[in-house]
Structures are given as C-alpha cells and as structure tokens.
Amino acid sequence: EEMVQKNGARVDGLSGEAMRAELLGTLSGVLYQQGLCQESEAMLWQARQLAKSAGHAQLYVKLTCDLAQFNYKRKGNMQAAEKHFKEGLGSCMKTHGLEHIDTASTLEAVGLFYAQKGDLQEASRLITDAIKVRKKLLGREHASVAEAYHNLGTVQERLQNHGNAVNFYEDALLMKRKLLPKRHVSIAETEHRLGALYRKMRRHEDSVRHFRGCLGGCLETIGEHHESTASVLHNLGQATLALASRGRGEAAQSRTLDEAQGFLERALAIRVSLFHKKHVCVADCHGDLGRVRFEK
After folding, report:
1. pLDDT score recorded for residue 249
2. Class of domain 1-96
3. Which of 187, 97, 274 is nearest to 282 (CA)?
4. pTM of this structure
5. Confidence class of residue 296 from pLDDT cuts 50, 70 and 90?
6. How far does CA 125 lie from the centroid of its chain?
7. What percent of the chain has pLDDT over 90?
8. Which UniProt keywords apply (predicted)?
C-alpha cells in the first residue's frame, strides 16, 4: 500500500495511480464472484478513470474492454457493451496503430462480441484483421494465431460456410498440435468442433476420427466420470452409428454398431450417475441406443 501511494513511484512500468487502477480492476472481479455486482461495476469504472488520468493507454483500453464484457455478460446490456468495445478499439488504434499486438487482441475481443451478438460478417472481418496482424508480428505458428483461426472457423460455420470453417479448424488444429502439449484442452476443443462439423457435412469417417481424438484428450485431462466426457462419448456414438448406416459389409457394420453401442452405454452410465434419470441428456442416450438396437 505504501509503495503504491508514493507519488510518481513506478513498478514494472506502472505509476502509483496506474497500479491502483490495475488493483481495482482485479478487485472488481473478486467482488462480482462474491455476488456484489453493483460494487464490482463501480470499482471497474473507478479503475478505468484512474488509468485514464494516469495516462496509461494500454491499461485504459483493457479496462474499457473489461467494462464492455461486464455490460454484456453480467448485465445483458448489448448497447452499452458495443459502445465500450468500440471505444476500446478506437483508443487502441489511436495509441498503437493497427500493427500492434494489443490491437490484435482487441480486434479479436470485439470480433467475438459481434459473433455473440449475431453480426457474423463484422465478426469475421475483425477476427481476420486480428489474424493478419498477429501473423505479421508473431509469425504463423503461434498459439494466439491458432486460437484466432479456431474462432474464425466458428464464425464461418455459423455463416454456413462449411468448407471455409473446415479449413480454419484444420489449420488451427495443425498449429495447436505443433505448439501445445499432446492432450491440451484447446486441442480437444478444436477436434470436437471438427467432429461435429464433419458429421453435419456427412463426412462420417472424419467425424469419428476427430471425436476419437477429442475423447482421448478428455480421458487424460478430466477422466471418464465427467459430463464433458459423456458429451464426447455420446457424439462419438452418434457419429459411429451414422458410419455403420452407410451400407458397409455385414460384418463391418456389426462391428461398428457394437462400437457405437459401447460409446453410448458409457455416456449413459456417466449421465445417470450425474443427473436425474429423466434428464433430457439421459433420454437422448436412451433414444440413440434404441436406434442402435433397431439397426442390429
């Protein structure tokens, strides 16, 4: 506290006033987690004003975007959120210009907001700009580039541009496999999106392949007894069932149906232990198991 209050003191490049702003921004999140929403918002506004008066542009932009996220996620105020996101991006561009890593981060954050809002064309444009900046500054093979490709794939999928979405997801997955530990959760997330998209495109072998990869990641990171693992098992069971229905030979079809049944039974066992027996996800598993038995 004494160090923060020293006039003009700087630690890690922050003045005392900017350090207080950063601390208040952190405490704002703590207050919200404790259910003190109004106090949290007031502290975030105070932090932002302190950053502005301290002349710390980078911190001001961050807190402005935090305020935008607060309005969107915690208050559901889309209009205020959009206003703050635009202000944050404008301040970032004015301070750093386009070709700066903070500008790329802000572009992606605003793009994700527009995707959540449903303005998918604007989201695609902003995330594409973020990728261009990051590739120029960091090179193609960087974790933040990979994540932005994943996000752009999600936007393209929602735009029904499935071919583009596949390309972005596959690029993201290739980079993540090079840059991240083998069973990193981010790899599993992209594999799951690819598995679901390939199933939508009726590319069932590709769908099964990626759901298998995702399942391996889930089992090594969160284990069998988890709803996320159950969800992947259910999706893998559905994809395997679709593969079995493609007019394969009788013996191959029988083996594939057995596999599908095994995945679905594992998903059902997990969900029965986690949810009420009448829960919709339990009913979904029963329904798909019924389809397997019918095919047999």
Report:
1. 74
2. mainly alpha
3. 274
4. 0.84
5. confident
6. 18
7. 71
8. Repeat, TPR repeat
Half-sphere exposure (Cβ direction) of 141: Cα atoms closer than 13 Å: 6
Q: Where are the domains of the chain?
A: 1-96, 104-180, 183-296
Task: Confirm if 81 and 71 have CB atoms less than 8 A apart.
Answer: yes
**Which residue did the predictor score with more confidence, 38 or 261?**
261
The length of the chain is: 296
Distance CA 267, CA 279 (A): 13
User: pLDDT tier at 14 (50, 70, 90 boundaries)?
Assistant: low
HSE of 38, CA atoms in CB hemisphere, 13 A: 0
Residue 198 near residue 162, CB atoms below 8 Å = no
The position carrying tokens 């596959």 is 170
- Fold classification of 183-296 is 1.25.40
Residue 97: alpha-carbon gap to chain centroid: 27
- The tally of CA atoms less than 13 A away on the side-chain side of residue 205 is 2
Residues 6+ away with beta carbon under 8 Å from 137: 99, 100, 101, 104
Helix (H) or strand (E) run with residue 58 in it:
helix 57-69
* Cα 294 to Cα 13, 99, 256, distances in angstroms: 68, 58, 14
Q: What is the topology classification, in CATH, of domain 104-180?
A: 1.25.40
Helix 162-179 and helix 143-158: axis angle, to 10°?
Answer: 160
The alpha-carbon radius of gyration of the chain (Å, integer) is: 24
Q: Residue 240 in contact with residue 254, Cβ under 8 Å?
A: no
Q: How many CA atoms lie within 13 A of 252 on its CB side?
A: 7
**Helix residue spans in 201-226 (DSSP H):** 204-221
